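Dear Dr. H.,

I hope your travels went smoothly. While you were away I took the liberty of generating a structure for the chain from your last submission, since the lab meeting agenda had it listed for discussion. I wanted you to have the full record in hand beforehand rather than looking at slides cold. The sequence, exactly as received, is reproduced here:
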Amino acid sequence: MTRKRFIVELGYGSDLHGGDMTKAARRAVRDALSRSCLCGLFEIMGMTDPGGMHVAVKVGCSRPEQVDAAAVLEMIPFGTRELEVVSGGLSVRGLDLPELGEGDSIIVAVAALTVSLDRA
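The corresponding predicted structure, in token form, is as follows:
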């Protein structure tokens, strides 16, 4: 069997206070998921179990080593999952408000979700 791509969706997420890479990455994945409807996989491709799909997640952020992979992947509700975190996104100076988090960094992460099915 060969894995065939059916959907690629992009998302954006940020952490405005605290510089939390995982929070920004999770928000980017949630943003991409919020615009993804899988009805074509069911109605055209005949998929009956969403667990049969594969979701590849690629996230770009300024400090990829600080992303908690398990926390990001738990955003995907079904199917097999894989995650690649690369250097990218954006980090800019914001406000240092200790009540909201540590530091003054605004972190932006981008995510690409690719949904595939195994086909003969």
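Two observations you may find useful: The chain has a mean pLDDT of 92. Residues 70 and 83 are 9 Å apart (CA to CA).

With kind regards,
E. W.
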